[in-house]
Specification:
Length: 219
Amino acid sequence: MLDNSSPVNSNQTHLHPRLATVVQRHLHTLHRGQIADYSRRAYAHAVEALSANPRPLVIDSFCGTGHSTALLAQRHPDHFVIGIDKSAHRLGKHRGNLCPDYCLLQANCEDIWALLTQDKLRAAYHYMLYPNPWPKARHLQRRIHGHASLPHLLALGGQVELRSNWQLYVEEFGSALHLAGHYGSVARVSNSDTPLSLFEDKYRQSGHDLWSFRGRISQ
């Protein structure tokens, strides 16, 4: 193996017993978290770039180095791709040549989701590739599907794909969307697929099973 990575280790073996309770509470409560100034500045940059050449939107949340963002711009050539990550260090490792088809934002994903929905902008596609799984059971509300910003994600709509090397995380995400009235399917990521991110390549070379949820969030 070229790059050994340990599998996810969790004290949770089944869907979290509080998943439905947490999701339902968030679905009925408007999230009013304070948006960071650096997220607002990054968002303004994205809106300016999109306004210069209006196209359907692809969101690459938790994009890390932006490797996936560049690949998604190739996969969706008639779209504008926004890659979002809060780490300037990770984004600083981007090896691609930024072009008019995508941009990288140093921002909190939940902030950008909120600002997009505030401006009634919608996603044609939304990718969440190998987010931090927060594997300890007590950290449910730090996971995407357990976070208070879930309604903003749902408001963005579009075709959604989440990938993880932890099957349970993907199943929880699918269950949360089902509770919200949106449906899709969980499946293994085929080894024949070109890796969409550097994490995917690393996990695959380490022998991990990779999982995805794919579905459509209807408006």
